[in-house]
Amino acid sequence: PSVAFFVGCLLCSCRAMSSASIIISVLSIAIALLAAWIIQLARTSPIDPLPLVFPPLPTPEFFLFPNGTLQNIDKLGEGLLQSPEDVAVDDQGRIYAGSFDGWVKRMWRNGTWEDWKFIGGSPLGIAVGIHGEVIVCDITRGLLNVSEEGISVLVSEVHGKSLKLINGVAVANNGIIYFTEASDKYPIEQFHWDLLESRPHGRLMQYDPSSGTVIVLLQELGFANGVALSPKQDFLVVCESWRCQCWKYWLEGPKGGTVELFLRLPGNPDNIHLSPDNTFWIAIPELRTPLWDFIHRFSLLKMLSCRSFMHKQLSRIPRGCGALKVGLDGELIYYLSDPQCKFMVTGIMEFGNHLYLGSLTSNYIGHIKLR
């Protein structure tokens, strides 16, 4: 009876109202309901985001002249790998890649692949050590030493806290291992929350195998990712994904222990590797876009974007991807691109006259023969 009474009153009110008044009332109710829904989503958001304002794009020519190079790559080991995020090459020219089926896989010079070592985890960054061993960033177990003799865990926790999302790695000539933890808050399944939250949870660390000690070199990095040493190993470069930039950390000389900006990028950098010609290759799996730059400006929009249904829709919007070749001072030398991002490059390694590319979204290693 109460519902019928309410409906009757509403109908009587509608008869007494003009068409314009009805439209205004309906719109007011709709706006109020939408506002209540947005407030509820914000109150229950899993992230506590800060607004993030990016500087102007440093290299607009990347967008004006996409070359589509990454759309014409050879596929190595197609169907044999799962999400090979990064690649490494030993001094014999054998290719190593981590696979999300728990294996470290190896490709011989004749093109044949083998399931080399089963680590049982989910490998990201990978590098060859000074004795031919392979150092793996396994998000499940930590920093691993993988060799013909077996598998050992080098680092699984720092300062009493388990590593949450170990990411990139580089090995110095003296055996010191430099590695990153992208986030000490979010696991890989929620990595986009870290990017949207825009609160720095990443670290750059140093591991000394001779003493077993770990030193935190840099903290509060914005999703710390790839790391690479300079030719003289007097500095290293570490990538910050959601800040779209890389830092130069000095290891030796009068600037030892200090950090300076190395390069601002047109997208989110992933792995970085030193090339034989003393330059760096940087993988950029996602380019900046005006839409995402706008979303990052407003905490409320980021609270909405982190929801699975919103994130899925936004992820379908093409962002393009690519890879940069830069000099030791960050100057641009060459650019590979894929405007449709059919191959989302997350790692790139140059060996001989070839480029080998990893991707979290593929089941093969990409290959490009250089001229």
Q: If you had to describe this structure to a student in words, what would you say it looks like?
A:
The strands form 8 sheets. This protein has a 4-stranded antiparallel beta sheet with strand order 1-28-27-26, with no helix packed on it. Strands 2-3-4-5 form a 4-stranded antiparallel beta sheet, with no helix packed on it. The chain has a 4-stranded antiparallel beta sheet with strand order 6-7-8-9, with no helix packed on it. By secondary structure, it is α+β, with helices and mostly antiparallel strands. It contains 7 helices and 28 strands. Strand 12 and strand 13 form a beta hairpin. The protein is globular and about 85 Å long.
List keywords for this structure.
alpha+beta; 28 strands; globular
Give the termini separation: 83 Å
How large is the count of helical segments? 7
The main sheet comes to: 4 strands, antiparallel
What is the CA-based Rg, rounded?
A: 24 Å
- The percent of residues in helical segments reads 10-25%
Question: Shape from CA axes?
Answer: globular
Strand order of the largest sheet: 1-28-27-26
Mean pLDDT: 90
Low-confidence segments? none
- Into which percentage range does the β-strand content fall? 35-45%
E-strand count: 28
Secondary-structure class: alpha+beta
